[in-house]
Amino acid sequence: MKKSTRKQLTFFLALSLTLSAVFPAMAYYQEPDSKKGLLISQQDMFDDVLALGVDQVICNQASYQATNTYLPLAQNCKRSGITFTMILLNNFGANSNLLPVSSPVEGVGNYAFNTATPEGEQAVRSYARTMANFYKDYVSNWVIGNEVNDAATWDYNGISDMDEHAASYAKTFRIFYEEIKKANPEARVFIPFDMRWRATDDPCRYPVCDYLPKLNALLKDTEYGIAWHPYPVHFFTKPEFLDDDGISFDLATTPNINMKNLDLLTNYMQNDDMRAPDGSVRHLILSEQGFTSACENGEERQAEAIKAAYEIAKANPFVDGFYLNRQVDAQGQTAAGGAFGLWTRDESAARDEMPLAKKKAWETYRNLE
Q1: CATH number for position 197
Q2: How many domains does the chain contain in total?
Q3: What is the pLDDT of residues 196-231, one digit of tens each?
């Protein structure tokens, strides 16, 4: 390379670094008009989102999917002023370095991102940077993983010790957080939990009351938020939650925190030690909850449960979003009784989650504001 060419490259590199310091990444956040949200089933059902009057949309982006998989949805959301939230999941079919194990493990739904090896850490950072930069002008909220306190099923990496698992997830979260904030300083980044505050049936399903403080100690310098899944106790058999067995209004004894006693969580997050670095209460979204219609008089009961749950979320000033699971019944869930959709599923369709007919809950949700 000629000296003059090298000098030019050096000059332009220095100029680029100077400009990036002077002109930071463009900030983007779409403030929603309401808390009403939905897990979308098909991108080509966006007209249904508009008809429902939904102001927030959430999707699951798997690591094996193409980066631009949800670009059409992202563009539609931005054009329509709808807040777009993306959940980042990890599974086989992706870069093998992203995965913590070499072959699938029976019973595992999603895997933790691999930050245990230098190759894994590099792959995770590269993936985080790619996603963050691609969607920096579209995604307002990012959720890293799924129900990370469940190391048996939804954040599996072969680690059973709670402290070790928390340290592993915190490392992963910080990588995504850093890359997302570099690309879009206004984006919010969330840690997802199930509803099991104390109740667990497996030593690798950590009670959130123990697991969250460990993550907070490792990540309290960040502006992490919480993505909570407040399902009813019997969510595969009935939609009602206000009569949930054993759910109390005492944080020291309640096994779960769901829509019945949600105030327990938001009160807890107001404690000084749990607040964000600037002293504010951390952002909270209810990123997944479903109410089945697969029961006697199911459509009426589902509609009533959705209305009651949404009104509770709407009245709580610390809840930023309420995302229904889901737009259309999913085959994997209906097999277990979880007919959570606002539409029934067309069982004859080649693709899962193709709509057949609106349920009563569709009209109920449309009328909520």
Answers
A1: 3.20.20.80
A2: 1
A3: 999 788 899 999 999 999 999 999 999 999 999 999
